[in-house]
């Protein structure tokens, strides 16, 4: 980075802390209409997002921590940009053009979210920052965590006047590789640290999901949601059927449960609406659009009240939910799943748009 760029970065940012001898910077962006977000260079990560309720009162609706030390010590991936491959690959292995590749394994014998030094652990540069937008960039070297090809990465966050948060993740490569970047914020529309999200109403534009085994690995099946706890084709409280779910992750976690599954989204390619969420007490509403074929809906069944969130607010089991739009889990090893292959000369582009609104004030 040249001297001028470094000065612009320093003028727009504040020091959040230090990680392995590197300064972690934070920037705050706003849309001038109530929305405000804070982001840090550690993992190109969203740490705060203030959204008004039906009475105009602001609350921070994403889970996170106050210090870099807490982010560095956790495996929750709060607010992070994850990759190269978000979600799980069984055995950390895949075959590409007849060559078997072995990835770093960081959840038992399996690969999760890019490995122990994935994109979430990188200290990204700030490429540009304005009042309502920030662009982070970094590089993933050839062979990093076992992935072939050098990739230039970019993550852009923009708050628009229509109360939307747009997230765009982009990458290229010098060799054929896998690319499946995901954004990993946990949402609680009542406000982070306000309790569980079981009363949030959710609708998912999906008629099918991909089941998982005891290691949270995709089995390769694609099943109908009809008549199952996975049916969110109409608005339903997150907690309505959660007790009917089979136990998941039993061989990885001592406790847990809840949803941690991929839904196969309706619609063709391009940006389209996939999820609506409503929190009845605050009246906050959130709608999400994505370009990706699937979404991992995780309801934080592995969180506990041992985890302290921002401003001394204790978190809890089911204290938030993630909406990780993605290719289907395990896709490199299932030929009938959407491909996550990226070739030289191509640009990977993954877009998410979160739109916020409220019920009318009473």
UniProtKB/TrEMBL annotation:
It catalyses: alpha-D-glucose = beta-D-glucose. Pathway: Carbohydrate metabolism; hexose metabolism. Gene3D superfamilies: 2.70.98.10. The keyword Protein biosynthesis does not apply. InterPro entries: Aldose_1-epimerase, Aldose_1/G6P_1-epimerase, Gal_mutarotase_sf_dom, Galactose_mutarotase-like, GH-type_carb-bd. Pfam families: Aldose_epim. The keyword Ion transport does not apply. Belongs to the aldose epimerase family. This is Aldose 1-epimerase.
